[in-house]
Amino acid sequence: MYFEWVDYSKFSLLEKVEHSKNHRAYWEEGPLLGWNTKSNEWTRNGGQWVKLITNFCGEKYYASRFLKSEYEASKSKPSKRLVYGMTRNPVTNDYAVIERLIDRCPDCHKEWMSLRWCRGCNPKHFESERHKWTSGNSEIDDFILETQITVEFSDQALEWIPETQLTEFKLIGKGGFGTVFKAKWKE
Ligand SMILES: [Zn+2]
After folding, report:
1. Rounded to the nearest whole angstrom, what is the distance from the C-alpha of residue 182 to the centroid of ligand 1?
2. Which end of the chain is least crowded, N or C, by CB within 10 Å?
3. 148 C-alpha vs ligand 1 centroid, how far in Å?
4. Count of CB atoms within 10 A of residue 66's CB?
């Protein structure tokens, strides 16, 4: 399992993913497969479509954290490997994570943004479950729902967590702006 730095010029046929800063691209050389002892060079799985994810890479910290978590996840499940490395657009200077182009949704046939995260179907699932929760404040409810139906990645969506989901409350701080508790989240 490895990541590599790939020069932006290696990608072609760049196509913007709608409503985002991400691109689909064709990577002619493709990801590394292994060392060829006969030709003394790396062999590659050429001719791959990939996704160049720029959305959160503006923040260096988040990009490196994302890479590390993908790295850990793919070490335990090499076949589920998604991320090949990083690149940087020389014009905008945006960093991008290079990800395998994930399968399409079996329901709406839209391309998945990440595994099982479907921007085509998510709004309808979130809206159909909207009656199951409320914060008691319609402004908060609207805001939470808006994040759920518009974000691209699952870790950007907010949820209302009822207090019954939380146990083992422990006071950890008290100050001018409020009181902070630590709690365990059952789900
Ligand atoms: Zn779908």
Report:
1. 36
2. C
3. 14
4. 19
Q: Where does 4-100 sit in CATH, by number?
A: 3.30.200
pLDDT at 132: 94
pLDDT in tens, 125-142: 999 999 999 999 999 999
pTM of the entire predicted model: 0.52
From the CA of 125, how far away is ligand 1's center (Å)? 10
Rg (CA), the chain: 21
- How many whole angstroms from 122 Cα to the centroid of ligand 1? 7
Q: Where in the chain is the domain with CATH 3.30.200?
A: 4-100
Query: How far, in Å, from the CA of 114 to the mean position of ligand 1?
Result: 12
112-92-16 Cα angle (round to 5): 30
